[in-house]
Amino acid sequence: MSGGPMGSMGMMQQLQALQEQMLKTQESLAEETVTATVSGGVIKVVATGDQKIVSIEIQPEILEDADAEMLQDMILTAVNSALDQSRALAEEKLGPLAGGLPF
User: Fold this and answer.
1) 5-98, which class in CATH?
2) What pTM does this model have?
3) DSSP state of 101
4) In Å, how far are 9, 47, 75, 94, 102 from 22, measured between CA atoms?
5) Sequence-separated (6 or more) residues with CB below 8 Å from residue 62
6) Residue 52 has pLDDT above 60, yes or no
7) Which of 73, 34, 77 is nearest to 54 (CA)?
8) What are the φ/ψ torsions at residue 38 (nearest 5 degrees)?
């Protein structure tokens, strides 16, 4: 690593460019979605790449046979699965950028 002022300026420019790239990637993650389903699609949860749940769909036929505890478990499973997928998507998109940090 260069100790001169030009080396520091170059590193600052690299960091600034990397920061801009990360911001753009984070913004695009907010627009991407993942979908998790349980019980053959009876419950469907959609989450964004920045870990926000945007919808939960429950097929009406499950309400005829399901008790409240079973329904709660199914929803919880679907939500956690959607959030896991969302985190994996974020890691996939942001991971390569973090590897470009100059140290």
Assistant:
1) alpha beta
2) 0.72
3) -
4) 20, 20, 32, 7, 14
5) 39, 42, 43, 71, 74
6) yes
7) 34
8) -130, 155
35/20 Cα distance (integer angstroms): 28
* Residue-wise pLDDT tens digits, 35-49: 999 999 999 999 999
CA distances for 93 relative to 23, 25, 48, angstroms: 11, 7, 13
Residues 55 and 45: beta-carbon distance below 8 Å: yes
Domain positions in the chain: 5-98
Instruction: Pick the closest to residue 79 from 41, 37, 49 (CA basis).
Output: 37
Q: Are the C-beta atoms of 55 and 16 separated by less than 8 Å? A: no
Report DSSP state, residue 100. T
In degrees rounded to 5, what are phi and psi of residue 67?
-90, 165
